[in-house]
Amino acid sequence: MRPLLASLPLLALLGGCSYLPTWARLPEVSGDKVLGVLTPYRVEVVQGNVLTKEMVARVKPGMPKAQVRDLLGSPLLTDVFHESRWDYVFTIRRQGAPAQQRLVVAEFDGEVLKTLTVPDDLPAENDFVAAINTFKPGSKQPKLELSEAERGALPPPKRAEDAAPTAAAEGPAPGRVYPPLDAPAKTGAGS
Length: 191
What we know:
Layout (H helix, E strand, L loop, with lengths): L1 H16 L27 E4 L4 H5 L7 H8 L4 E2 L6 E10 L2 E13 L2 E6 L7 H8 L15 H6 L13 H4 L21
């Protein structure tokens, strides 16, 4: 009976841990904020091969496997039972950007590419970069040109004859002797 009575306070403590008010619960995957202020960090997951329209346009039927691998990279999935099929899968989940998933399938006839199945939503390179870019630049852009008033305030450029001569143009200092570049050949009985 004593062990049962001794375990009652422990059970009461554990039962109290199961209660959390609704405001303190962590948000679901939908992106809700904790306490309406904080957004929890989500791990960025990038898997597979990034393929763009420009990359796929270089691949033509009749190319050997090695050339397809050079142009598109190694496939993410190759099946031992289907050696004539390469699957190029790409998925990305990034906070602040929509999730993306694409599949490009290369089918071979022996060692030669037979077909390349490309999804309709395969982006161009610039479109892909814009889709994953979550950096929001500030409204203040850097100034690239001087105004006429700023140009007028600059000091005038020095003329070529006023500029200080460089050491290379002057030549060696007078009276200075430099050692020869090649060491003289030694002659002797031992050589």
